[in-house]
Specification:
Blueprint (H helix, E strand, L loop, with lengths): L2 E13 L12 E13 L10 H16 L2 E2 L9 H14 L4 E7 L5 E5 L1
Parallel strand pairs: 1-3
Antiparallel strand pairs: 1-2, 2-4, 4-5
Bound molecules: zinc ion.
The site of zinc ion (ZN) has 4 residues, from strand 2.
Length: 115
């Protein structure tokens, strides 16, 4: 049996995809939703990870970096797929054992990385 802890976060950011033949070629923004999953055994007190500890890592590693920025300044070619890979690397570097990361670019569309 595996237990997963999932928490979602929001950030607002702009991006531009110059190679795109449609609307994404223009400078525009999204209200992104990041869904972070950590899976593992329960500790002695019966949790995988404290929701507050999870939030602290995501805030310092992702939200403080991405929120209200022009993502092209931080990430080359910031498609949702490339952004979520960058976020995965940042969370892993911060020591968070992420097992699934979903980045919602709109209400209907998300990209996902799994361990
Ligand atoms: Zn976009």
């Amino acid at each position: 049996m595996q237990t997963s802890v999932v928490r979602t976060f929001r950030f607002e950011a702009a991006h531009q995809l110059p190679w795109h033949t449609g609307k994404c070629r223009q400078l525009h923004g999204h209200g992104y939703r990041l869904e972070v999953t950590v899976t593992g055994p329960l500790t002695g007190v019966g949790i995988v990870i404290d929701f507050a500890d999870l939030a602290a890592v995501v805030r310092s590693s992702i939200l403080d970096v991405y929120d209200h920025t022009f993502l092209n300044d931080l990430i080359e070619n910031p498609t949702a797929e490339v952004i979520v890979a960058d976020a995965w690397k940042r969370l892993a570097a911060a020591g968070l054992a992420v097992t699934r990361l979903r980045l919602w670019e709109t209400e209907d569309c998300f990209v996902e990385i799994t361990a």
